[in-house]
Amino acid sequence: MTEFPAAHFRRHRFPAEIITHAVWLYFRFPLSLRDVEDLLAERGINVSFQTVSEWAAKFGLKFANQLRRRSRGQFADKWQLDEMVVTIKGKKYWLWRAVDANGYVLDALLQSRRNKAAALRLMRKLLKGQGIAPRVMLTDKLRSYSAAKADLMPKVEHRSHKGLNNQAENSHLAVRRRERRMMRFKSARQCQRFVSTHGQIANLFLLHRKDLTAADHRQLRTHAISTWREIALSIDA
């Protein structure tokens, strides 16, 4: 395992570097809790998958909130909004998500409705989180977006066309992969907590490799790992 500075979280038997590594594995890669348990066991660290689950729930959102604060206001001014169906215990929900022009996740919100009120809630959350309105907003042809935008951001340019919204559509794939690996989300609360954490950690390691030289990619990856360590090991927990 990569060397970390010695650190411990209060009232936890395992060092902070093991806990943060387990949380990183779970949210960074499409792994199940038992996969993470096996990867740690291979390195001589005997931790149950239930413990990994508790670490992910306790620390994951704390790490994500730190990343969210660091990136506030630094995304592209073109927002793409879309929604996907999530079935939880036989009930249909809508996962509303927003990404910027470069594919970075701005926010995600699980809701039981697909109407103007739900679109308004997402847009208010986005404006509060980013602190600034976009220059352009891209959506599909769902009329709820137009109605909500007219109330909150009437001066923002709105392009409503399914073919223009590929960035948002493609960003759903990562969530779908995790949903299958987790054998569906078990509750609305678990789903919201997971997507809120996963999106921010995914942003940190989204490096657009096809546009980089190998040397530049390694440099950016090293910087991302350093940022992760700095954030994860500075949490007061």
Automatic annotation (TrEMBL):
One of its GO terms (biological process) is DNA recombination. Keywords: DNA recombination, DNA-binding, Transposition. The keyword Protease does not apply. The keyword Oxidoreductase does not apply. InterPro entries: DDE_dom, IS_Transposase, Transpos_IS6. GO terms for molecular function: DNA binding. Residues 78-205 form the DDE domain. This is DDE domain-containing protein. It comes from Ciceribacter selenitireducens ATCC BAA-1503.
